[in-house]
Amino acid sequence: MEDTLSYWEAKLGGMPAAPAPAPGSQDAPVDRVAEIQREWRRERPDLDSSPQGVIGRLHRIALALTERLVAVYGQFGLSEGEFDVLATLRRAGAPYERAAGELADHTLVTTGGLTKRVDRLAARGLVERRTEASDARKRMVRLTPEGVDLIDRAITAHLANERRILDDLGAADTAALEPLLTRWLRVLDGD
Length: 191
Fold this sequence. Notes:
There is one protein chain. By secondary structure, the protein is mainly α. It folds into 2 domains: 1-63, no CATH class; 77-181, Winged helix-like DNA-binding domain superfamily/Winged helix DNA-binding domain (Arc Repressor Mutant, subunit A, Orthogonal Bundle), CATH 1.10.10. 65% of the residues lie in helices and 9% in strands. Strands 1-3-2 form a 3-stranded antiparallel beta sheet. A hairpin with a 2-residue loop joins strand 2 (127-132) and strand 3. The two termini are 28 Å apart.
């Protein structure tokens, strides 16, 4: 893992490159993605399957992480989207409210999708809606005291879960991975 991280860090503009394990070598990771790459090299040697080594593994990691994260949200009776709404409101600071449009921007969902989430949370007494006094067209969404209590407990469990997940990777790999992912996200976001 460390050689692969060093290789990609150098490729994206970091430390000098350590050679990446050669596909099919004994040092190459043997996992489902490596098997898929081997099969493509056998079936279509004219294609470069090396991107699957990174993209395929990231995709599998994302699926595994989502499964582990969603399990914790479920302990609090929350879906991933509901957790996101409550956490976004909590991060706003007292009085833990945001305009509906701002909330949609922070949670990266459409206003229609946000409306459904807020409806479910309001029905449970975790958020409330109000109209902005200075602009009757502006709708505000605010955490109720019950919502603050729930998200405070859920975020505590969520961050402990993330810590456990990263502890499995180790401090050195975690520290090396964060700047790589930050840089790559900037590239993908076009910044």
